[in-house]
Amino acid sequence: MNHPFVMLLRRELWEHRSLWIAPLVWVGILVIMSTWGTFQLTRDNDFGEFASATSIEELQDLSESDRREIEKAMALDSDRGQTVFAVSYFMISLLISGFMSIVVFFYLIDSLFSERRDRSILFWKSLPVSDTQVVLSKFVMAMLVVPIGVILLSAVTQLVLLGIWNLRFSNSVIGLMTPDWDMGSWFRAQVIEAGTMLGGVMWYAPIAAYFLLLSVWVKRLVFLWAVIPLVAAPLLEFLFLRTSHVAEFLGHRFGGFVDKMNIDPVTVRIGDHDNHMPRVQELYDAFQLSGMFTSLETWVGMAAAAGLLFLAIRIRRYRDDS
Amino acid sequence: MTTVIEARGLSKNYGSTQALRAVDLNIQPGRIVGLIGPNGSGKTTAIKSILGLSSFEGSLKVLGLDPRTQRDELMNDVCFIADVAVLPRWLKVSQAVEFVAGVHPRFDRARAEEFLARTDIKKDSRVRQLSKGMVTQLHLALILAIDAKLLVLDEPTLGLDLLFRRSFYDNLLNDYFNKERTIIITTHQVEEVENILTDVLFIEHGKIRLDASMETLTERFTQLTPTPANLDRARALKPFWEREIFGRVAMLFDGRSHEELSALGEIRAPSVADLFVALMQPVSAPAAPKEAA
């Protein structure tokens, strides 16, 4: 596909290779660590005994209470057993998306600054590509392409880690405690992850647009410009006014995503239901995605993002960088 | 055919500094125009205005479009190589070709690849691995493959050795230029471009000092080396520049007939470089040259 906008997105992947190399390396580390943990850590401890025993009868040193717990786990109905899988899906997704949010932060503050730093901006401006297209390509890369990549990568990682787990434990007591894999449940988890990602993208859009604006506006030391005001403004407010409105605002803007998702904390507290695992359906239902999309704050944030992007486009268009 | 560049009262101030002072320009298609001036004369400001990279006052149309408001459209028909515009160091040669092919509707990929095949540039190399000359060759390969109506070259050969400079201009003339295309070149190395120019624009302190075609230049300006006996008679004809070289005096005249001057000594057409020096350093000039035509 050679549509100019697609080409602009490809350019981002050529220039900012960390966007695809970093997650692959990170997933590689996760898989290696997990594999190592699965095969090595379980060799020489109590857990190793479970891993090698093919039936509960082989576990001769087992205390009566442990035996009861294992039997309870083995008797767990599939609906509750799938919750273990679902939690691991979300953990894997969280590890990858959390890591990628750091990568995207550095990408955003560098994306419009690098063309000025290496003085290539006039080369890019010599081509029939509008400033709007350029700025939007960077925003779309950070807020659409990368999130889609994260969803796909975490789906693949989940399956790979699941495969490794199965290889190691399929013929063991641990395998017997684990319910069969349910593709429908896995697919539902992917849909929830995608919805959560969409909510996150919408919630963090103004922050991403703000970083892009800094990237096109600041003359040097963009990282410091991005970080210092966020730390200094609340500190100064507290020192001089003894209030914490800025800190509260920033805290809400950076961390309020979880509140807006309206996740039911009781349901997701695993094992708190009379020491029972919640049903996987209960876990999935705890994610009230609609709270994010119906919140006025989300849409005000989106409008702010549009305003900040407009400013970034204007600055790139009219700034004399030569 | 549409006038390529039409400027009326083009002005630009940087604070209290006037970079361009009510410049009027009229550049027709099929011309190779040398925009020549000393450092800080306003060359780059004029170029930036033409390319829509800088704000300005006055009226300016490039290919019938306003560079301030129609820049995106304009870039379909305009190419430029700016002296400060370097290709990004992380870019691979193959990526450069692919990118321009992807975003430029008038880019001929086969032509660019054909041009690159004539060089030592490898497709898999990154720009950071190429010499300065090779980077310019790559940039030129990209530019020459674009069917643009206006090409602007701002000090394109700065820092290149003589062989690369010569090859650059040869390629420009042989592979690119035709009667429908216009090229504007700014350079300090006047002597290297004067043979390919059809017009010259001398600019100084933001004002056009001379705007003339090469044919007019030959007709209008004459360099006279008078015999010692005719020195006073030659001076009486009011040369606008005079200089003593190896004991002989050279004078430049504006608008004097060849017949009149040849009676006083040896005459020849001055080079663009001579004219540039004479007009920009009028210290020794006994009489001011006539205003730009």
Question: How does this structure look, described?
Answer:
The complex is a heterodimer of chains A (322) and B (293). Chain A is an all-alpha fold and 322 residues long. Chain A has one domain. Helix content of chain A is 78%, strand content 0%. Chain A contains 16 helices and no strands. In chain A, helix 2 (18-41) runs antiparallel to helix 5 (78-111). Chain A is elongated, with a radius of gyration of 24 Å. The model of chain A has no long low-confidence stretch (mean pLDDT 86). Chain B is α/β, with parallel strands linked by helices and 293 residues long. Chain B has 2 domains: 5-205, P-loop containing nucleotide triphosphate hydrolases (Rossmann fold), CATH 3.40.50.300; 216-284. Chain B contains 11 helices and 13 strands. In chain B, the strands form 3 sheets. In chain B, strands 5-6-7-3-8-9 form a 6-stranded mixed β-sheet, sandwiched between helices. A 4-stranded antiparallel β-sheet of chain B has the order 11-12-10-13. In chain B, helix 4 packs antiparallel against helix 5 (132-144) and helix 5 (132-144) packs parallel to helix 6. The mean pLDDT of chain B is 87. The interface between A and B is medium-sized, with 27 and 34 residues.
Distance between the termini of chain A: 33 Å
Measure the end-to-end span of chain B. 23 Å
Q: Helix proportion of residues of chain B, in percent?
A: 25-40%
Radius of gyration of chain A: 24 Å
The SS-based structural class of chain A is: mainly alpha
By CATH, the architecture of the largest domain in chain B is named 3-Layer(aba) Sandwich
Shape of chain A: elongated
* Strand content bin of chain B: 25-35%
Number of domains of chain A: 1
| Radius of gyration of chain B over all CA atoms, rounded | 21 Å
What's the order of the H and E elements of chain B? Answer: EEEHEHEHHHEHEHEEHEHEEHEH
Q: In the CATH hierarchy, what is the class of the largest domain in chain B?
A: Alpha Beta
